[in-house]
Amino acid sequence: MADMRLIVAGAGGRMGRALTRVIAETPGAVLAGALEAPGSELLGKDAGVLAGLPANGVQLSADLWTLSANADGILDFTVPGATIANVAIAAQRGLVHVIGTTGLSASDEAVIKSVTSRAIVVKSGNMSLGVNLLAALVKRVAQSLDESFDIEILEMHHKSKIDAPSGTALMLGEAAAAGRKIALEERSARGRDGFTGARRSGDIGFASLRGGTVVGDHSVIFSGPHERITLAHHAEDRILFAHGALKAALWAHGKKPGFYSMADVLGLGDT
Ligand SMILES: NC(=O)C1=CN([C@@H]2O[C@H](COP(=O)(O)OP(=O)(O)OC[C@H]3O[C@@H](n4cnc5c(N)ncnc54)[C@H](OP(=O)(O)O)[C@@H]3O)[C@@H](O)[C@H]2O)C=CC1
Ligand SMILES: O=C(O)C1=N[C@H](C(=O)O)C[C@H](O)C1
C-alpha cells in the first residue's frame, strides 16, 4: 500500500509539533498538510521547522478543503470548534479522522457520531497504551467493589491546559461507571467548593490540578472502609500520544466507516 498521506490539524500546537516529528520517523506515513487556525501568525510557516526538524516544504494553511484533496487522514488535536468543523470535511473527503481533542460537549459528540455511517473516526481522550489498559483495570476493579468503596479521580496537567476534567479523567470515569453499571452523567461529582454536604454514596468524584509542565497524571482511587486502592498512570512525554495517534491512523486506513476507539486499535476489545 502507498504511504498514508496525513494532515496535522493544530500543527503549531504542542501535539501538532509532536505529530509532525513522529510522522517524519514513521515508515508508511507522510505529511501531506498542516492546518492551523484562520488568522494564526503561523500560517505560511514551514511545519518541519516549527517541529524542530529540517524544512519539509509543508506550509501551514487554514484551508482544510484544499489540503484534503490529496490526503488519506487527519490527526486532530485542536479545540472543539475546530474539530467539529473538520468532521464535516473529513467525512465528505472520506478521510480517516483521528480525534484527540478533549473538552467536547455532548452535542459535539453527537455530531461526530452522526457522520460515522460514512466516515472513519478513531477517537480517544488518551492515545496511550498505558491509559487504555488502566481503563480496563478500572472497569474490572469497579465491578468487584460495591458502593462502600468511593471512587475519586484525580488528574494533574500543565498550566496551559484549557479544559477540565481532562478527557482521560472522563474516560476513566466512564470505565468505572461501566464497571458499576451506572450512568456517569447521573453520578458524577465535579467542582466541589464551599459547604458541599457529605459525599453522596455511589458518586464518582473528579478533581483537577494545573501547574508547570506536567504532561498528564491520572489516579483512580477506590476509598473503602479502612483501606484504599489507587490505580495510576503518569505520562512522561507527549510524544507518547503522538505515537498512539499514528498507530490509530495506520490501523484505520482502509477500514469500514465507523466509530472506533483506541481500545479497538490496541486490540483491547470491550474489556
Ligand atoms: N487524546 C490524547 O491522547 C491527547 C489529547 N490532547 C488534547 O489535544 C488538544 C490540543 O492539545 P495541545 O496540543 O496541548 O494544545 P495547543 O493549544 O498547544 O494546540 C492546539 C492547536 O490547535 C490550533 N487551532 C485552534 N483552532 C484551530 C482551527 N480552527 N484549525 C486548526 N487549528 C486550530 C491552535 O492554534 P491557536 O493557538 O492559534 O489557537 C493550536 O496551535 C487538547 O484538547 C488536549 O486536551 C492532548 C494530548 C493527548
Ligand atoms: O491537554 C493535554 O495536555 C492532555 N490532554 C488529554 C486529556 O485531556 O486527557 C490527554 C493527556 O492527558 C494530555
Automatic annotation (TrEMBL):
Its main location: cytoplasm. Its EC number is 1.17.1.8. It is found in: Cytoplasm. The keyword Cytoplasm applies. Keywords: Amino-acid biosynthesis, Cytoplasm, Diaminopimelate biosynthesis, Lysine biosynthesis, NAD, NADP, Oxidoreductase. The keyword Cytoplasm applies. Catalyzes the conversion of 4-hydroxy-tetrahydrodipicolinate (HTPA) to tetrahydrodipicolinate. Homotetramer. Belongs to the DapB family. This is 4-hydroxy-tetrahydrodipicolinate reductase. The gene is dapB.
